[in-house]
Amino acid sequence: MILEGILLIFNPVCLGLILLGVLVGIVFGAMPGLSATMAVVLFLPMSFGMQPMNGIALLVGLYLGAISGGLITAILLKIPGTPSSIATVFDGGPMADNGEAGKALGVGILYSFLGGLISILALIFISPYLAKLTLKFAPAEYFAIAIFSLTIIASLSGKSLLKGLLSGVLGIALSMVGMAPLDSFTRFTFGYYQLLSGFDIVVILIGVFAVTDIILSGFGRRTLAEKMEKKEFKLNGFGISWLEFKQQFGNLIRSSLIGIGIGILPGIGGSTAGLLAYTATKNASKYPEKFGTGVVDGVIASETANNAVIGGSLIPLLTMGIPGNTVTAIFLGGLIIHGISPGPLIFVKSGAIMYGIFTALIVANIFMIIFETACLRWFVKLLDIPKHLLLPIIMVLCIVGSFSAASRIFDVWCVVAFGMAGMFFKMFQIPTTPLIIGVILGPMAEENLRRALMASGGDWSVFITRPISAVFLAIAAISMFISLKKHWESYKAASA
Amino acid sequence: MNDKTRDLLCGIIFFAFGGAMFFQSRNISPIIAKEVGSGFVPKIVAAVFMSLSMLLLVLTLLKERKVAAAKTNEDIKGGVLTILALIAYVFLFDGLGFLLSTALYLFVQITILSDAKNRRLPLFCVISVVTPTIIYFLFVKGFDLILPAGILPF
What we know:
The complex is a heterodimer of chains A (496) and B (154). By secondary structure, chain A is mainly α.
């Protein structure tokens, strides 16, 4: 059966489809506004007419390519191509500024591959056991994870903890616009129907990262040409030495585990995985103060974790039929159309296809690393284009991306509005990263808080009597306390 | 604007925002029986908002005033023109259609960002026409996505 599955993949048509999927996926991933979900949706109808394995292999390639493409724009332009690559911007961007764009990309690509590979192995060997464990996760646990994840705001606030927290709370507030979870009560729409569905995370991302950037370069246009002096670019292999690789081994394992763990849990997603792994690495590091100035550790953490989500998210999908994110939800549709019903019996009923999917994932991962490494030199060339030409073109791509997310001009207006808001944030020296974290995690925290309270009949003790939830909340409290202490010490030192 | 004024202003704006949010969420009543309702979390968030911004205000007022007049190399005209160009672009995006509005925007924006030394208008013209054309064919013909057609017949 294993051999049968592998043979299903190794024919020219199927390999060609995986390659096509990976290439198109990378393009979708790299372009801000175009997401992995959109890539899979666009190609889903095309896959219906194919042999089951071919159609599914195409979708696998698209998914993997789209998650891996985000790092290109995140590093070179400081605009995350997909929400999963947000944390890659923190150190990848500064690395490019320091003339290490090639190294950042090379390392990012290598660790995307490794993160993906480790998660695929986890999917193959331990998926049934892991899947059972996650069945124990109820709303109380999800709420605890959301709260725990929100504490990373404190680590990513920069100089002013208070402003970081305010920014995070504003993000949560923004996420509340539109229909509320559970009862669909319309909140903060001011009677404006376009706001019913709220703000898309992509719209906020493009606004705060891309539009703000172009407005600021308008203000700084006198120095725009000066920043362009050519930087030396050298790259051997992936830009990482064997010694560095050994030093980063702990980072690789930790970030992969975070990625797989987040991937298995439905509804959290790659962006949280990248941010959590980044923060965990920063806090475990001997030089946390250097994070954000262009250390390779940050890029490794983020890219390993977001690719590890891929294998992780397929675990509940294939073994229980539970889609964890929008991509796997569409994937589920694709599987069912082809007569494959995911669930505990999938190995019995469609064993060959299962092993085919595993093989397709590994093949797609290999295609990804070959293609991205081969094109690395051309990617870096992007930086040689003068800024006054490059930035407007990027802006156009962002506008197109934000429009195609839902084909409405309202989103494009929002992008510009968030860009202006981002400009004021910069003026007031408020960090924007906490805002994004708030937008991502706010809805998860609220929905699960209310679900948990509903299930417990309004009894708040459920959050501390359930062990997994209690552990996460305890870690959240400890991490919050440590951050507060650190900030208080530096505040006292500054005012003394 | 020095650090102190900036932080004070920041605190006041956020406090007002939190207040407005609390005011707005007063009327959200629970629909499902035995449930905290959709107004519960917004009220907490608004309260956190107000207390954090209050804290920021207090801490800022207590802080010694350190005057640091930063020298700015900012070009207000460039920034304002960029914002205006963006707004005009979005405004024309739907009306004129993707191709025309984008060509126009690209030309204007590139000219704004260029300086006397690198201002090569013929090159800018070519870029402004070629870029939208490539994007249009890639997106509309290749990926089957929708972009506003506007006044052009295709």
